[in-house]
Specification:
about 140 residues; alpha+beta; Lipocalin
Length: about 140
């Protein structure tokens, strides 16, 4: 039996392969935890809220205040969180092996530890102990 391949079917197959490779390349960094330098850049890096997911994996509707939230991590182990007129400062530690970040607000008696799901140059996903996720993007 003779196999007849039309130019249109070759084009379609080529397009399909391109989309498949592009999709794989874009998703390759999800779930990757790179070095602590990705967290703070050279001296500091500011992250803004992209999405928030509850423990069930459902997207939480973002309010204007949530859209304005920013967190800046500094190379010296300090952080600053801003939301509208409110600010909070503190110290953080990043455990590369355990893929966790612990944040201790100044004046607070208790720290918060998050699992770092993704940490790349432009994406940061933190998972709380309750299973909720905060997805941040580089500002």
């Amino acid at each position: 039996m003779k196999n007849i391949t039309s130019p249109a079917s070759r084009l379609l197959a080529g397009l399909f392969m391109f989309v498949l490779l592009f999709t794989a390349a874009c998703g390759a960094k999800e779930g990757t935890v790179e070095s602590v330098n990705q967290l703070y850049g050279t001296d500091s890096k500011t992250w803004k809220t992209d999405k928030e997911m509850n423990a069930a994996g459902d997207k939480v509707a973002q309010t204007d205040a949530m859209d304005d939230q920013r967190v800046t991590f500094y190379a010296n182990g300090q952080y600053n969180m801003m939301s509208g007129a409110q600010t909070m400062n503190g110290k953080y530690t990043f455990d590369q092996g355990a893929k966790t970040i612990t944040m201790m607000p100044d004046g607070a008696g208790q720290s918060n530890t998050f699992t770092v799901v993704t940490l790349t140059d432009d994406k940061l996903t933190l998972k709380g102990t309750d299973g909720s996720e905060l997805r941040l993007e580089r500002e």
